[in-house]
Amino acid sequence: MYLLNWLTQAATASIKAAVPAASAPAAPPPTTATETATKSMTGPKIAIVVYSMYGHITKMSEAVKKGIEEAGGSVTVYQIAETLPQEVLTKMHAPEKSAFPIITPEELAKYDAFLMGIPTRFGNFPAQWKVFWDSTSGLWASGALAGKYAGAFVSTAATISTLTHHGVIFVPLGYSQAFGQLTNLSEVHGGSPWGAGTFAAADGSRQATALELEIATIQGKQFYGIVSKVKFN
Ligand SMILES: Cc1cc2nc3c(=O)[nH]c(=O)nc-3n(C[C@H](O)[C@H](O)[C@H](O)COP(=O)(O)O)c2cc1C
Fold first, then answer.
1. Which long-range contacts (CB under 8 A, 24 or more apart) does 35-42 make?
2. Might you report a single GO cellular component term (predicted)?
């Protein structure tokens, strides 16, 4: 029954996406040649989207952004909406949120490629990220994210499976650009061929190290190197 309701909802969203309501303004015309030319001159539209409660992922996102910019790209950083009430956040000793704008599913669909910053919750990604993805059935039904490229810093299998349903192409960090850093055994560090990562420590007191931030910057550069070669419509 639940599945039926959800599918009906998704199908309605799909029809809404395909057929604008009579009173709604006409849909914008398809991308013109000039727009396409401008886009290819300026490179792909990239977003970094983070959820960060204690600031570790926010810090990592700055390093990833630096990498994209050093590679010649530009990027906008967004955050996922908080779902916990302030009372709970206070009890969890969460500091004030960053000033990044809050992203909506419709906003995400405007980008060619995106990198997700994800902290861990009991071995999975946070409910805030799940709530965001659970509000994307309209995008899924219209295939709005299909063929886009995505990467993640601190990634989980659940994230990849969500991207798969949307037809988004996952870009792993791999080893080719960060072999020395990822295989460095002289110090404890986060990061894997899936993407950059950091360890916050049991009490959240550990901040990303120089090596972890270096890997995040390499990921930004490597991600831009791949998506800047793609011809987005
Ligand atoms: C409810 C909760 C569950 C968590 N579960 C895990 C976990 O399973 N594994 C882990 O390594 N860290 C876990 N953590 C610690 C988070 O990974 C850590 O707080 C987070 O990486 C900090 O990132 P942020 O400062 O960007 O929010 C958990 C934290 C909270 C609040």
1. 36/233, 39/232, 40/231, 42/74
2. membrane
Ligand 1 touching residue 52 (CB < 6 A): yes
Query: How far apart are the C-alpha atoms of 110 and 58, rounded to whole Å?
Result: 22
- Calculate the average pLDDT of the chain: 85
Determine the distance separating the centroid of ligand 1 and the alpha carbon of 118, expressed in angstroms: 10
**Second CATH level (architecture) for the domain 43-227:** 3-Layer(aba) Sandwich (3.40)
| Domain locations along the chain | 43-227
What are the pLDDT digits (tens) for 103-145?
999 999 999 999 999 999 888 899 999 999 999 999 999 999 9
| Assessment of whether the complete model's pTM goes beyond 0.70 | yes
User: Which atom of ligand 1 lies nearest, measured to the CA of 55?
Assistant: 25
